[in-house]
Amino acid sequence: MPLPRLRLTPDASHGPLDGAWWPRCEALELELPALVGSLDPAVGTVTRVTVDTASWPEAPQTVMAPGHVIEVVRTDLAAEAHAITVDCGTVGRWELLVIPPDEPARAAARLLTAAADPENLLSAPRILALAEDGLAGEATWESEGGHGLR
Predict the structure, then answer these.
(1) Can you tell me the distance from the alpha carbon of 61 to that of 70, in angstroms, rounded to the nearest whole number?
(2) What phi-psi label fits residue 67: left (phi over 0), alpha (psi between -120 and 50 degrees) or beta?
(3) What distance in Å separates the CA atoms of residue 36 and residue 32, rounded to the nearest whole number?
(4) Which residues contact 134 (CB under 8 A, 6 or more apart)?
(5) pTM, full prediction
(6) Average model confidence (pLDDT) across the chain
């Protein structure tokens, strides 16, 4: 199983995002076990993930991970677009930007870095919107608290 492309914020710094994930394909049942397996075991067992229906229209209700089943909740909330929320029971919850699998490597690397920046103040939809606009002005990015896409 290939390792997922993942970058998390250092320490326990929390902004709107706790990092980013760049899956290799759109099949959540194939990608999620690798993501879960790459997380530090100290975070606990991933019990549930929340994904947006636009990004994961074919997401199953459950996904098998090594030793347990993960519940998959789908949402239509705009604030959850392009993100995955990883719940580890009572231990914690992580909000990750989901970079589209077909994103070019250079752009994906910049997005991974930006989302994992502890000073990032932007949500997943906003980071992707700025990236799609070609960061139509570093001033816009900086004025909204973004760092790391330079």
Answers:
(1) 9
(2) left
(3) 6
(4) none
(5) 0.82
(6) 83
